[in-house]
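Troubleshooting log. The previous structure file for this entry was overwritten by mistake, so regenerating from the original sequence record. Sequence copied from the archived sheet and checked twice against the printout by T.R.
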Amino acid sequence: MAAALANDDCRRGKTALFLIACGWAGAAPHWLQPGRSLLPAITLAIFLGGYGLRIVMKERKKNSESPDQPDLQLLDSKDWPTVDIVVAARDEEAVITSLVERLNLISYPEKKLSICIVDDGSKDKTPIILDELINRFPRLNVIHRNFGAGGGKSGALNQALKKVDGKWLLVLDADAQLQDDLIQRVVSFAEEGEWSAVQLRKSVINADQNSLTQMQAMEMAMDAVIQQGRLKGGGVVELRGNGQLLLREALEKCGGFNEDTLTDDLDLSFRFLVNGSLVGMLWNPPIKEEAVETLPALWRQRQRWAEGGLQRFFDYWPILISNKLSLSQRQDLACFFLLQYALPVVTMFDLITSLLTQTMPAYFPLSIIALSVSGFAFWRGCNRYSEGPDLPAPTPVTLVIAIFYLAHWFMVIPWVTLRMAVLPKRLFWVKTNHRGQQAL
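Regenerated output below.
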């Protein structure tokens, strides 16, 4: 307990320093001479904008209508490695039955595949449904945890890790939908590329529900383009939770899932990185999931993502700037941190100072460049071939809306940073509610 409290205080202190640094950076240009106030933003726009443009342009140049097709003949059927599908589920009565039924239709040698679902203290009918499903599907393993057992989703996954022994773990969310041949293809891709982990592209099944879900579908495509570009540029690929294939040996090497973080996937990305475990990215086949359908749900989800993302940078920063990582990896992480986390906070202080001093905002060139590069990534992602739900058409109207949609991060990041600097850490697993929609 004392160690946890000390770690919490350390994170709050680092967040406070980050907030102060961003405040100074946002306010300082307003005290420069008018002709020089835009120089910091223009310099950063050239440097960071150039970085963003390079990684988006590194998207593969093969025909965008051709799907990724790993060679399924690489492994003889008797040589397929063992795979454990692991799901942490809380209050998932709407989707858990269809998930188990779908997983039992997967094309993979039966003796090489197991399914383990952790009921993490559900208060709905999820435990009852799972116990009934065991009778229908003998290879289904169910673990029941008490509500508040500790460790959040990471605690549930670590509980499953003790019960399974396969070479690979495929971690899924309860709303995951996947093609019958997905495991064959992603395992083949991982073993051929000698990856320690592979993240599948996330695809939204309810994109046509409303404008918000449509924007999230475009955002997932944009994120995958950026991830692949970062990897091709010598940078870092990050895990995204749902649809991540993990080499058990590498996972155990870094101590399993971190129970002292809000986002097990983002934290694990850095734990793999500092241990030299390589993470790959696969565009097709995608892992299909539901997008949140309301603004309050989006706000809650993005706060958790932002807090977990900042936590891992503050926790691992000494190693991230050390020679343990390559120069290109350090440059990639620095640019990503500045664009994803520092820019929104600096922009907030820039606007506050602008109002107080009645001067023009100083960082608008950088914000414009960052959003423009994001728009280009939207366009490239939505023009690629997708196995699964069709991606939204990147028309001029949808691209403009998508860019405005991304501006929500300029509210989420500053608010979360301020809260982290003042309030104690929160580790309660605030899950996303699922309705059980089916992919078309």
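The domain at 77-320 is CATH 3.90.550.10 (Spore Coat Polysaccharide Biosynthesis Protein SpsA; Chain A). Archived copy saved in two places this time.
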